Amino acid sequence: MQQKTEIITRFAPSPTGFLHIGGARTALFNYLFARKTGGRFKLRIEDTDRERSTTEAVNAILGGMRWLGLEWDGDAVSQHARADRHREVVDSLVASGHAFRCYCTPEEVEKLREEAFAEGRALRSPWRDGGGTPPDDRRFTVRFRAGDSDVTLNDAVQGDVRWAAKEFDDLILLRADGNPTYNLAVVVDDHDMGVTHIIRGDDHLVNGGRQAQLYDALGWDRPVFAHIPLIHGPDGKKLSKRHGALGVEAYRDMGYLPEGLRNYLARLGWSHGDQELFSDAELIEAFSLDGLNKAPSRLDFDKMAFVNHHHMKLADDARLLDLLMARLAGHDGIVPADTARPRLQAAMGSLKERSKTLAEMETQAYFLLRHRPFTPDEAVSKHLSAEALDRLSRLRERLATHNDWTPEAIGEALKGFAEAEGVGFGKIGQPLRAAMTGGAPAPDMGLVLALLGREESLARLDDRLRA
Ligand code: GLU
Hints:
The structure is a single chain. This protein has three domains: 1-73 and 229-314, Rossmann fold (3-Layer(aba) Sandwich); 81-228, HUPs (Rossmann fold); 378-466, Arc Repressor Mutant, subunit A (Orthogonal Bundle), CATH 1.10.10. The chain has 19 helices and twelve strands. The chain has helices at residues 21-37, 55-67, 83-95, 106-118, 182-192, 205-218, 248-253, 258-267, 280-286, 301-314, 317-328, 337-354, 358-369, 378-381, 386-400, 407-421, 426-437, 445-452, 454-466; strands at residues 8-11, 40-45, 77-78, 99-102, 141-144, 151-155, 159-163, 172-174, 197-201, 224-228, 231-232, 297-298. A three-stranded parallel β-sheet has the order 1-2-3. Strands 4-5-8 form a three-stranded antiparallel β-sheet. Strand 2 (40-45), helix 2 and strand 3 form a beta-alpha-beta unit.
């Protein structure tokens, strides 16, 4: 009986200093596919650029992955640490005649490249067929001997892709300083890590063609390639910083929950009927390469917020409270944490309804936390005329003896008071809101007073009456 091969996917970021939102989506697809199939999801850090591959830059990637909940299997592999293995494979390609030493100087290469360009083909080195005695004072690169037939790639997203042989140059595998190049290192690493499926951005599609040639020359089975269109901006153009080309930590700081971002990113370039909202288990269950879209998707913050709101509502109150408290730390003009915490805890149900992100929750929670006495914002001070304050003082008397401190009962009491005063509700509501919230966003007044509690509500009224 034939054994079913385990599916192994990978994410192979270069340490750029943060986990870019596009990379995060790529990682997520690879993660979901591995989890869906009971396979493994591996992580390789492409740290061959030594200048950029600082510990901080690598940790930024690992931290981003962890925050987003994309746990990888086994240790993260360092590409740089595998350079000897890369050189060994290059030697084997030279031995088998698939690669050769090229002694051209950079100036010669430049000239050859111009000639090739003028003839509408890619560079071929004069050293590819042996070509003379190597000069002993010259350094060499090792180049792949590009084949003579078309290169084809059966891509799981792009379909059959074909390149004419002349489009691929004699690719450098080993630089003059003895360092392996990207395409060579990626093929060797993916092979040695047992990678069966490579899902990545379609900016690597041509590399897919180059890498396919290397797999064939090495006699290794090609993995399945799935090149996904990059994320575009809302204008359909390349995603700019302004439109969200940021690291995942920027999204964390904007107040998205990891599960909200996971759900949103999964749907950005992958679809499953019309379903927008997914639990993690549903994502894993539903994910398939077939659902990967061929057309580029556009980043849409409204939709991201909508999806995040769904996950905010499902999130555990205690967890949200901790996240909110952490965000509030260091804010000026708010009550101390031991006062804030129980107030926020009691308000969490209403805050969740009203906040699509944690950042919105901070805004929505502010009225509860204002340190009294505070000065109402200018925009609402106009509601605190002498006449309005008179009315507030009569309302204070009424509320002081009001027993049922629930949103509904308080709402009824406020309505009753407006009727007794012979004024519309606004005449009560607006000054009361100014006194209670100082103009900060808040729900209806019955709920505001209920959430603040009787003592704090009356104290805030007193602050205004005494001011
Ligand atoms: N290190 C490459 C990048 O960050 C990805 C290589 C790959 O996925 O094959 O773009």
